[in-house]
Design goal:
Elements: H1 17-39, H2 43-53, E1 62-66, H3 72-76, E2 84-89, H4 92-105, E3 111-115, E4 128-134, H5 143-152, E5 154-165, H6 173-193, H7 198-208, H8 212-221, E6 225-232, E7 237-243
Parallel strand pairs: 1-2, 1-4, 2-3, 4-5
Antiparallel strand pairs: 5-7, 6-7
Length: 244
């Protein structure tokens, strides 16, 4: 396998990707929810709903949401009536926005927002029934290590759902996405978030990510079973799933 290109938000040779990603999300945390829904035209909500519906069959009681950010995926998972949801992220800024959101909506009795590293999870083996991660795995410093940790903390027969951006292949979505990611996302992202690099990093990180069959093969090589993928919105994003 050829060496994977490392894409970092700020390109500082003296800092790890993990450090830069945490700083980037701290910088944009106050504007993140608005920009996320604005730049995706609200379609991201539909993607999360579809992803969470794929967990209904296992009736999970304990769910871990990694790269949780401000907790949108965790909130969507409440539809499954679990007893416990842990939202974990490396950005304290994002988590603080998420905690305020949980408290305001009365979700904090079920959803706990915790600071942590997806590649070194502070949980025992087989603890969770299900795991979700939305738009986060491409930010991992060591993709294989992060995916292996995810599998470790899920119980046997438990299910893992990974929602990630992909690159559309067919007209006209391919052309629209190329224009949107090259011009619209960096233009509005830079002006609204005040972080010049953050929304240029997004399309760069998507371009470097091993999507589709390549990503499924990585999952299988680490021991994921029943690995499947489902394109949404013409391939702008993909929902990957696997079981332990």
């Amino acid at each position: 396998m050829s060496e994977r290109k490392v894409v970092k938000p700020y390109g500082d040779v003296d800092r790890s990707k993990k450090e830069e990603v945490a700083e980037m999300f701290n910088n944009i945390s106050k504007k993140y929810d608005f920009l996320n829904h604005f730049l995706s035209l609200g379609i991201d909500k539909i993607w999360r709903r579809k992803a969470v519906n794929m967990l209904r069959e296992i009736k999970p009681e304990r769910i871990l949401d990694l790269a949780s950010g401000t907790g949108d995926f965790a909130i969507q998972s409440l539809k499954l009536n679990p007893k416990e949801i842990v939202g974990m992220d490396i950005s304290e800024g994002m988590l603080e926005v998420g905690r305020q959101k949980m408290k305001k909506n009365g979700f904090d009795n079920i959803i706990t927002m915790r600071l942590g590293d997806s590649e070194d999870l502070p949980f025992e083996d087989n603890y969770f029934d299900a795991l979700t991660v939305g738009f986060g795995v491409r930010n991992y410093e060591n993709l294989e290590k992060g995916l292996a940790e995810m599998l470790r903390v899920v119980r046997p027969e438990g299910k893992l759902i990974i929602l990630e951006f992909s690159k559309p292949k067919k007209f006209p979505v391919k052309q629209y996405y190329a224009f949107h990611s090259k011009y619209i996302i960096p233009f509005f992202g830079k002006r609204i978030s005040k972080d010049e690099k953050a929304y240029a990093y997004l399309p760069e990180s998507v371009a470097a990510f091993p999507e589709g069959e390549d990503f499924k093969n990585i999952m299988k090589s680490l021991g994921y079973k029943n690995v499947q993928s489902r394109l949404v919105s013409g391939g702008i994003a993909t929902i990957y799933s696997g079981t332990k």
